[in-house]
Fold this protein.
Amino acid sequence: MLRAGIVGLPNVGKSTLFNAVTRTQKAEAANYPFCTIDPNVGMVTVPDARLEALRAIAKTQVVIPAVIEFVDIAGLVQGASQGEGLGNKFLTHIREVDAIVQVVRCFEDADIHHVSGTVDPVRDIEVINTELLLADLDQIRKRTERVAKDAKRGDKAAQAELTVLTALEAGLDTGKPALALGLSAEDTALVAHLCLLTSKPTIFACNVKDSDLATADQNPYVAQVRDYVRTHLACEAVVISAQIESELIDLSPADAEAFLKDLGVAESGVGSLIRATYHLLGLRTYFTAGEKEVRAWTIHVGDTAPRAAGVIHTDFERGFIKAETVAYEDLIACGSVAAAREKGLYRMEGKEYVVADGDVLLFKFNV
């Protein structure tokens, strides 16, 4: 299962956010640096309003959403790439995840200590990214020394990798993360074994005060983050209030909805963050729907019908014959599979079919 790591400076709300997305109190959240040492791991359900609509059509009471894994990683500080603040250990934890959620403090509060003394979200982002860049540069230079020897002896594979390493070092030296350097899929594959920190898909979570959530678009710190990550990192930023989310943990869905309504917001910011992270990981959802259950299944972008079937069971992929499918929007518009079939919207697809997000599928197989 793919994992998203929650990172940031100490005391920006990482552990509070982790507890909110996992609906637990697993991670200690305290007003001092490094209250998290070992990473906390939690399974997170992906909010998807389509499940309830499908449940009504299938006439079932069982709904099983998609899930992803979140990891709460201890705060990084300036000098982490040289071991400051147990930096090497924490950088290793980041290297082990597939995507990064970088939490950025976008609120003033004299009672909550900031490791740098003042609130400046762009500076904070640059501190984190600089440490990731320096760690990557160190790794690239060490790898270059080893590969260069084989390249000089005429090893074609080593020569190809050396070309990519040279381009990476030049790009990172300008302050650009590996993800923003425009490497081809082939070049990326040549250095995939390095698990570069700056090559990981990243999303930024602007953590605001509870009173600012409804008016986040007017928050100058949020505006700074959005502009910076768009122009410098080609990344997306979403707004959350970790403190609000922590207060929602123990509320029933109805009470949580009323609570958010009183604040002037329609949906939990964490719900948007989870969905955005799910897509950032290159994941998409298809559904199966019947009287027994409605279930969301996770696939990767570009997966064919047999691979999608294999998510349910390897026998489904091995003995795949065909997939009966209807798009979610068409099924909802028709109101039933029978009506969709009558309108020609329910169709048969073969082994080459690339499953689309929201497809409702029924597989035929023979083993």
